[in-house]
From TrEMBL:
Secretion signal span: 1-33
Keywords from the named record: Hydrolase, Plasmid, Signal
Any one GO molecular-function label of the UniProt entry: hydrolase activity
Organism of this sequence: Granulicella tundricola (strain ATCC BAA-1859 / DSM 23138 / MP5ACTX9)
Lineage: Bacteria, Pseudomonadati, Acidobacteriota, Terriglobia, Terriglobales
Protein name as it appears in the record: Glycosyl hydrolase family 88
InterPro entries in the record: 6-hairpin_glycosidase_sf (IPR008928), 6hp_glycosidase-like_sf (IPR012341), Glyco_hydro_88 (IPR010905), PolySaccharide_Degr_Enz (IPR052043)
Length: 424
């Protein structure tokens, strides 16, 4: 008798756990069914993630940035005004320092991809070709090729966007040949039923914008269709519709902050919001699933501004800001870029969002040093963590320049009058 009761209790407990798991990730089943993927993808293991084919691309951390003990004094010559001249002055100061520091270390790694995007955008915003010229020299040095020794890892495709941007200015086939070859191989490559292609949220900045822009350049929809399918598979798995944020990967589904809240990484979600903005820039207005991207972009933007701190910036752990004393500038800059793009392109309400973008930009300026170093950038990682005030890494500089570029466009098209942006 006691044995039967015990068995019934165990069965009831198991059923409750199953129901709970189903309610949390019900959307995954729909996405997998739609794409005819094997459900074992949900059981992706940590061992698979650490295999040579799927672990994050190896990077030279010393080439990506540093955290000196004495970075010198902070800048005193930058204006918080949201006007094109003031914004461009800050962009030039930071970009000039970064090129002087980093150009001897330029490489094909994902850490530099966002920097190259930002430098190209800086030339467009300022009218000064020297920033783009630095990217062109890098591209020619590497014969316009991608790293392709860890296929199909998204990190190694991120550099393709710089090549595509430069191709549009001077369309010679060799500029996109390697990128197109890698993307064609990717599309022809069967899905692995045992794991997601883009199993970590950062990947949504690394590969989807390249696929979307290649589709636009070549007028071949296969790249966009492939991107679209893979995006929503990843979204179904990593996006939390209640929090309107992305988990970095599935190892964070059950992890908590010190205050008991779910663990959501600022830079990871910054990568995604910036990726959404960049994909939408290259997606036709009549693309069938575009409304889904717009809806997710708006939902994330709404959540992001609610998590902004009084200094205008975000902490590396979004739901427990008290646990992180230092603001984190790479995630903050990616958020500023995405929000500014959304305002300028009519996806976000200007009156509501402009004060948030203004305070974000002004907050970022507080971390620029006299020589042009932008500090408070979290080193390479995958989760929230402490940040040194002097810490500067190339992807954060790229995000800062992308944000400045969008702010330049926005304030050029519709100037902001003095007193028009009350402080938050």
């Amino acid at each position: 008798m006691h044995g039967r009761i015990l068995l019934r209790q165990i069965a009831l407990s198991c059923r409750r756990r199953v129901v709970s798991l189903i309610s949390i990730k019900l959307t995954v089943a729909a996405a997998l069914a739609a794409t005819m993927l094997n459900p074992t993808i949900i059981a992706q293991t940590q061992a698979q993630k650490q295999s040579p084919a799927s672990a994050p691309s190896p990077v030279d951390r010393n080439a990506a940035g540093d955290s000196p003990a004495d970075p010198g004094p902070l800048a005193t010559d930058l204006s918080p005004a949201l006007t094109p001249p003031a914004i461009q002055k800050a962009m030039r100061k930071v970009a000039d320092w970064q090129i002087a520091y980093a150009e001897p270390r330029f490489n094909q790694q994902w850490t530099y991809a966002a920097l190259y995007d930002g430098l190209i955008a800086a030339s467009t915003a300022t009218g000064d070709p020297k920033y783009q010229d630095a990217v062109q020299r890098m591209s020619e040095h590497f014969d316009w090729k991608l790293i392709d020794n860890r296929f199909p890892h998204a990190d190694d495709e991120a550099l393709g966007r710089a090549y595509l941007e430069l191709y549009q200015q001077h369309p010679t086939p060799e500029r996109i040949a390697s990128t197109r070859e890698v993307l064609d191989h990717l599309i022809a490559h069967p899905d692995d039923p045992k794991k997601l292609l883009w199993w970590w949220c950062d990947a949504l900045f690394m590969a989807p914008p390249v696929l979307a822009e290649m589709s636009k350049i070549t007028n071949d929809r296969k790249y966009l269709d492939y991107m679209d399918r893979q995006w929503w598979i990843t979204s179904a798995y990593l996006y939390d519709p209640q929090e309107k944020l992305y988990f970095r990967d599935d190892t964070y589904f059950t992890k908590k902050e010190a205050n008991g809240q779910k663990l959501f990484w600022a830079r990871g979600n910054g990568w995604v919001l910036a990726g959404l903005a960049t994909v939408l820039q290259n997606m036709p207005a009549d693309y069938p699933t575009r409304p889904k991207y717009v809806a997710q972009f708006r939902a994330m933007a709404e959540r992001v501004i609610a998590l902004q701190q009084p200094d205008g910036l975000w902490r590396s752990g979004l739901l427990d800001p008290a646990a992180y004393a230092q603001p984190e500038d790479s995630g903050s800059a990616f958020f500023a870029y995405g929000l500014a793009w959304g305002i300028d392109n009519g996806l976000l309400d200007r009156k509501l969002y402009l004060p948030h973008v203004t305070s974000a930009w002004q907050g970022l300026l507080q971390h620029v040093y006299a020589d042009g170093r932008l500090g408070a950038i979290q080193p390479i990682g995958a989760a929230p963590g402490d940040v040194k005030a002097s810490s500067s890494y190339v992807y954060g500089i790229g995000a800062f320049l992308l944000a400045g570029s969008e702010l330049t466009k926005m304030t050029t098209r519709k100037p902001i009058h003095a007193g028009g942006n009350p402080p938050r």
